[in-house]
Amino acid sequence: MTNIPETGRTQRVQIRLVVIQVLVFSLLLTLGGRLWYLQIRNGQEYSDEAKNNHVQQVVQPAARGSILDARGVPLADNETRLVVSASRTELLKMDDDGKSVLTRLAGVLGMKPKEVLDKVRLCDAKTPQPCWNGSPYQPIPVTDEATTQQALTIRERAEDFPGITAEPTAVRRYAAPGKANTAQVLGYLSPVTDEEITKAQDTDSPYLRSDMVGRSGLERTYDKELRGKAGVTRYEVDNLGRVIGHAKNDEAEAGSSVVTSIDARVQAVAEYELNQAMKIARTEFDNNTGENYKADSGAVVVMEAKTGRVVSMASLPNYDPNAWVGGISAKDYAKLTGKNSNFPLLNRAIQGQAAPGSIFKVISSTAAVNAGYPFDGHYPCPSSYSIGGQTFKNFESQGYGDITIGRALEVSCDTVYYGLAHQEWQKDGGNSPKKNPKDWFYKTAHQFGLGKETGIDLPNEVSGRVPDREWKKKFAAANHDAWCKQGKKDGTYVEKIAYENCLEGDKMRAGDSVNYSIGQGDTLVTPIQMATIYAAISNGGTLYDPTVGKAIVSGDGKTVQEIEPKAHGKLPFTKKTRDEIDEALAGVATRGSAAWRFGGWPQDKIPMHAKTGTAEVYGKQTTSWFATYTKDYSIVMTISQGGTGSGASGPAVRNIYNALYGLDASGKQDLKKALLPTPQKSLPKIQADGTIDAPTIKPYNPDSQKPAGEQTLAAVLGRRD
Question: Which contiguous run of DSSP H or E holds residue 401?
């Protein structure tokens, strides 16, 4: 026997081989099973996912619907412009990523190369505007103001401009028919944000990255209806972004049009007259401040009395909404939002808050009657009213003896309301109020709809303020420490007020109540609130939600959804009280504080009702208010730092009525010249192809609208109402 081991397999080696074989077969079996699971059982699912990961979308924006006036005249629509766009997909195929092409393009368009390069770069958290926040596979607009010659140059020299197109494209246009700007009512558009896309992705109206979104006004309120549905073409691309096939195509659906209750002709008149009133006010001297009135802003609302529909809404200063089309420049944005801009983006008809002055007295009159004071009772109207050591004067210290509440409305006697409010304050417990005080004057203001939004179909309406006991307590709690720090018993006027507020700022004092009764103090209202109130007095007491939208018309014209007027309350008076207030307001226009503005008015044919107001604001000049109504319309105008109610706003309001009813200087009516002698009821005519028939608008001629016996503001300097 030899000691050399056998070279064949031993038992130990065989066992090891068996173990290895088992492991190998197990691994192969596992791998095979996994491959079967991925490729056969779930193969289609993963195949679809892989395919989707390589599908890119190119969006064809839907034509945005138009915003039309009540007769079908376009206020906002689309116009065809020559848009020059760049394809990033094509540019990135070039050695220099298309920089040379874009530089040549800048030369043709008269732009700086950096400006063009910035426009086609993609937006991210670190990239400032301008940049592109849409799909990188979509043509990126470089300019929408290309000339015909520029477009021809690009197309004729296509070999020099690969990836560049110059095509006619629909772009938003704010037409301003008849010079009716209507900016704050219409609003403007800007690109959708990532946050908005995420928020809307699971709704019935998701956004695409290419969408332009309404940011204010009707563009925002009716954005969903106006936007329509964009068309989407899907392309298969490889991992380098190269298109390798066509996947699917969804056709675009045009947006619906919004028919409004705005009449472009009346809108043009209202804007012109408001602007003229402010210009004239700036030429007049304010004896109280020793300088001309600033008349820095203003608003006017023309409303249908029986429906709450807004016929015109103007706010100054205004702006050109076309500045936002195609992206607003940094320079223009600063002009609209900077400290010295006076904030023209604000719609002061629904966002401007001010003390109402004497136009508030219709509310105080109602409160007094509801508290038990007869409307035709007699109440003292002395030249002043004293409470403790404080004297509250009637305007120009003029007294009228004992008069009715109706007469107090006509001549705007402050001391009548001082006395009534003071008596109610005493009945409620004075400085030591009862557990449940009646608070008639504050309760009635809430019932008139003040202190909350009217519900108008425009965004960002403000609520105003009724400074009742609850508000006083909250306001005092928030400001107590500041008052105590600032207040001085024998300091300046502001320091004395702060001192008093530090001690008892949470109490409803007698001075607060009497000031409140004439629309002064901490009370704040908006023009739309007061227009709604005066319209309700006209129609018998129904408070309507003001509306601008009148109907939604589908892009093909086959579907029309009317927006019906909706009431949100009733004024808190009886028919008898309403009729008494109505008669008194007619007296204001015929023999009271507004009579000199309505000389020659055909009162027998078109009864006019009015109330003037001049609100005092600490540290500023007086605010002019003029509130009016007929059986058809209510018109309210206000001018900040404009002077007196009838002095500054009165002529403009009269001229708007003249235009509505077709009245000349003597009050003679010519219905052929009347813009809207009765409110527009019917919708504009829709053609068979879905287009809407729109009449032409003639320019407003202000010379034919001057009221008889027109006086200058200088003749009434110092007149409060």
Answer: strand 401-403
C-alpha dist (Å) from residue 510 to 224, 307, 517, 583, 701: 51, 39, 11, 31, 51
What is the enclosing helix (H) or strand (E) of 480? Answer: helix 469-486
Q: How far apart are CA 522 and CA 501, in angstroms?
A: 14
Three-state SS string over 495-535 comes to HHHHHHHHHHCCCCCHHHHHHHHCCCCCCEECHHHHHHHHH
Q: CB of 115 within 8 A of CB of 101?
A: no
Which helix (H) or strand (E) element contains residue 101? helix 99-109
H or E stretch including 549?
Answer: strand 549-553
- φ and ψ at residue 195, rounded to 5 degrees: -60, -40
Q: Could you list the beta-strand ranges (E) of 200-332.
A: 212-214, 231-237, 243-250, 257-260, 285-286, 291-292, 297-304, 310-316
Task: For residue 670, give Cα distances in angstroms to 598, 652, 659, 701.
Answer: 18, 20, 10, 15
Q: Write the burial class of residue 490 (CB in 10 Å: 0-12 exposed, 13-18 middle, 19+ buried).
A: exposed
Token digits of residue 650: 């009165």
pLDDT of residue 139: 82
Question: In angstroms, rounded to a whole number, what is the distance separating the alpha carbons of residues 174 and 192?
Answer: 20
Q: Spell out, as residue ranges, where the chain has pLDDT lower than 70.
A: 1-9, 33-59, 133-135, 210, 237-248, 396-397, 704-721
pLDDT at 166: 87
* pTM (predicted TM-score): 0.84
Q: Which of 523, 508, 509 is nearest to 361 (CA)?
A: 523
CB 171 within 8 A of CB 81: yes
- Using CB atoms within 10 A of its CB, is residue 158 exposed (0-12), middle (13-18) or buried (19+)? exposed
CB distance 142 to 120 below 8 Å: yes
Tokens 């009280």 correspond to 577
Strand duo 379-381 + 401-403: pairing? antiparallel
Q: What is the DSSP string of 127-164?
A: PPSS-B-S-TTSPEEEES---HHHHHHHHHTGGGSTTE
CA 697/CA 701 separation, integer angstroms: 12
Determine the Cα–Cα distance for residues 167 and 180; give it in Å rounded to an integer: 31
* Residue 641, phi then psi, degrees to nearest 5: 55, 45
In contact, 258 and 225? CB cutoff 8 Å: yes
SS (H, E, C) 609-633: EEEEEEECCCCCCCEEEEEEECCCE
List, as own/partner pairs, every contact residues 234-241 make where C-beta atoms lie below 8 angstroms and the sequence separation is at least 24, other chains included: 234/55, 234/56, 234/57, 234/58, 235/55, 235/56, 235/57, 235/58, 235/137, 236/51, 236/54, 236/55, 237/54, 237/55, 237/56, 237/137, 238/54, 239/54, 241/56, 241/89, 241/92, 241/137
Structure tokens at 37: 């699971």
Q: Put residue 612 in one of left, alpha, beta given phi > 0 → left and psi -120 to 50 → alpha.
A: beta
527-539 and 361-370 helices, crossing angle to 10°: 50
Q: Look at residue 537 in the predicted model and tell me its pLDDT.
A: 98
Structure tokens, 54 = 């390589």
Q: What is residue 68's predicted lDDT score, i.e. its pLDDT?
A: 97
What per-residue confidence (pLDDT) applies to 240? 58
